[in-house]
Amino acid sequence: MKKVTLLLGPLLFIATSVVFAGAAAAAFRWVETEHNFGQITQGKPVTTEFKFTNKGEAPLIISKAYGSCGCTGVEYPKEPIMPGASGAVKATFNAANIGFFNKTVTVESNAYGGLMTLTIHGEVHK
């Protein structure tokens, strides 16, 4: 009985590895992951779009996308992005304070790697 268990354990591991290795996955290909707004005016919102293509073999589903602070609004596709199709994550920054800023947008999805961090930065003037 012990020999059967020793033989079946590795065979089961190999079989499940082969099944999961063949599973299709979604994959982002971003045009850019960082955007410099340059000099912007305090209290006037600025927006950029982070464009991407699903280069994977499965539909890409963004489950959540959010800014690192309340001053950064985020919009993202709610429908699955099919393989080969494109989409965008839109980030809007509304500066309350003067000076340099560096903010992030976190994208949670079923893509390989799971989390993606996008960055926006610039300098706020009156």
From TrEMBL:
<feature type="signal peptide">
    <location>
        <begin position="1"/>
        <end position="21"/>
    </location>
</feature>
<dbReference type="InterPro" id="IPR013783">
    <property type="entry name" value="Ig-like_fold"/>
</dbReference>
<keyword id="KW-0732">Signal</keyword>
<dbReference type="InterPro" id="IPR011467">
    <property type="entry name" value="DUF1573"/>
</dbReference>
<protein>
    <recommendedName>
        <fullName>DUF1573 domain-containing protein</fullName>
    </recommendedName>
</protein>
<dbReference type="Pfam" id="PF07610">
    <property type="entry name" value="DUF1573"/>
</dbReference>
